Amino acid sequence: MSRVFLNYGVLLLLLFQFTSCLKDKDYRDPIYFFYDEPVVVEQLGAYPIVRNQFNSFYAPGLADNSALKEGDLLWSSFIVDLGNKDIPSNLSTIKYTAQNIKYEIVECSNLIVPANSDEFELILSNDFSYPIESSVLFRYAIDSIWFMGFKHYQNNSNQLHYTYELVLNPVIEQNSYNSPTFYIRAKQVNSPGPNKAKDENGRNVFAFDVSDFVKYYKEEISPTGLLRFNLKYKTGVDNEGKDIYKEFLSNPISWNFNSAKPK
Fold first, then answer.
1. Hey, what's the torsion of the CAs at 93, 99, 101, 106, to 10 degrees?
2. Handedness of CA 206, 211, 216, 218 (dihedral sign)
3. In this prediction, what percent of the chain has a pLDDT beyond 90?
4. With b meaning 16 or more CB within 10 Å and e meaning fewer, what string describes 146-175?
5. 13-106, what's its fold?
């Protein structure tokens, strides 16, 4: 089960994405349907393996797939039939098979951690200036990777390609609940096509690797891994040309990296 934090600027919703279960009266083993499920490719070749937040899966549908490489992040859907025991013997640690897997590759970038306030302000003046209508933090993580969803204002935005950056303010801001603040920014880029990885609501899905910050936070602030932070995303500029950011109404957000899922 996955959750998301969703902010439309004036409304906070918690959306739950469930795996479905079918159980026929004459069929003793359940079948689970996964959708909007982020996974990472762990192994390819004759015996491909993907991993979500909790488990690894044998994914025969990816055998000899030339479009993927190990370490790719996927936004996927697949079926797990607990009655399917047809797993190769050399995959002794794998208990489940991901059948009928469908996916799109999720683009990922590293969190930017400026050295000081001057560098932070310089980064915020770069060309990541495209307005974001709404931003979502999915209640899900793989290792120290966050998955987010984005919508843009233009009606034709689904035909455009965007990349995103996540920037940490190195200074604790006033009225920030004494928690660090991350800034989300977007840029339109030249690309053969639009962003392909989308959730069921048509939002662009993008990932951020925040492992450097997790390491710093555990060593310097909280060895338990529990983190409280704020998220803001750029929605445009005002009449004076100054950037406008909206906060997630769920700020401050608590996340336990030790358990790889938010609380």
1. -20
2. positive
3. 67
4. bbbbbbbeeeebeebbbbbbbbbbeeeeee
5. OB fold (Dihydrolipoamide Acetyltransferase, E2P) (2.40.50)
The Cα 29–Cα 22 span in angstroms is 9
Sign of torsion over alpha carbons 160, 15, 255, 228: positive
Mean model confidence pLDDT for the chain:
86
The string of pLDDT tens digits covering residues 24-35 is 545 568 999 999
- Per the CB < 8 A criterion, the answer to whether 254 and 222 are in contact is no
In Å, what is the CA distance from 260 to each residue of 52, 59, 61, 94, 139? 11, 23, 27, 20, 10
The CATH classification of domain 107-262, taken from the options 2.30.29, 3.40.50, 2.60.40, 2.60.120: 2.60.40
Q: Which amino acid is at 105?
A: I
